[in-house]
Amino acid sequence: MDQVLYVLVSVFFILAAFTRLIALIGSRATTQASHESNKGIQLAEAGKFQEAITRFNRAIDLSPNDPMVLYDRGLAYYYLNQYERALQDYDDAICLNSNESIFYYNRGLTYKALNQSDAAIKDFSQVIRLDPRNAEAYFNRGLAHNILRQYEQAIQDFDQAVRLEPYHTQLFYNRGLAYQELKQDVRAQRDFDHAKKLEESGDPPR
User: Fold this and answer.
1) Are 75 and 86 in contact (CB under 8 A)?
2) How many Cα atoms occupy the beta-carbon half-sphere of 2 within 13 Å?
3) Are the CB atoms for 106 and 76 separated by under 8 Å?
4) Best label site of 17, 63, 121, 192, fewest CB within 10 Å?
5) Nearest to residue 89, comparing CAs of 67, 108, 111?
6) In whole angstroms, what is the distance from residue 109 CA to residue 120 CA?
7) What are 170-189's pLDDT values in tens digits?
8) From CA 122, how far away is CA 105, in angstroms rounded?
9) What confidence tens digit (pLDDT) does each residue in 32-65 have?
10) Is the CB of residue 101 less than 8 Å from the CB of residue 130?
């Protein structure tokens, strides 16, 4: 009986030690992944996107279920105009965390760059559901509606964006374009004039 107890206790401690070893390995991998990810972010901020991707690849190998690293790599691909690769990384990030508005926002920008306006609108709409005060999401959804000649919907989005960010030069300019397409020339000119006034007062172009 004592021998059986000894064996059971030994097995327990062996399993506990093994569990601690796995946790330690995981912790070290996570720390190394964080280091590689931070290096990647620094390189991306310096405009060295290909080098950044190499770092993000290492981080993903060490921590494949980290949605932020996938997002960061997608962003680097986006700035290299490798839009399909960016989309894949954004898709994977969203699969791991479907509640992060920035994932949808940047995927929407990528769809817009690929002239896939319908897909872009869906993503910007999801951003708005998650973050109703995101003026840039309304603005970019409005731009996508303009491209599709859905001018009334575009104006609604620009109106909402203006309420949230009233000093956005391009908002007024693009709303003016939508009014112009609808032959509402007085409103169009008013927006063009306001955009010019904001630009002259120092509002940075977007």
Assistant:
1) yes
2) 0
3) no
4) 17
5) 67
6) 7
7) 999 999 999 999 999 999 99
8) 10
9) 888 889 999 999 999 999 999 999 999 999 999 9
10) yes
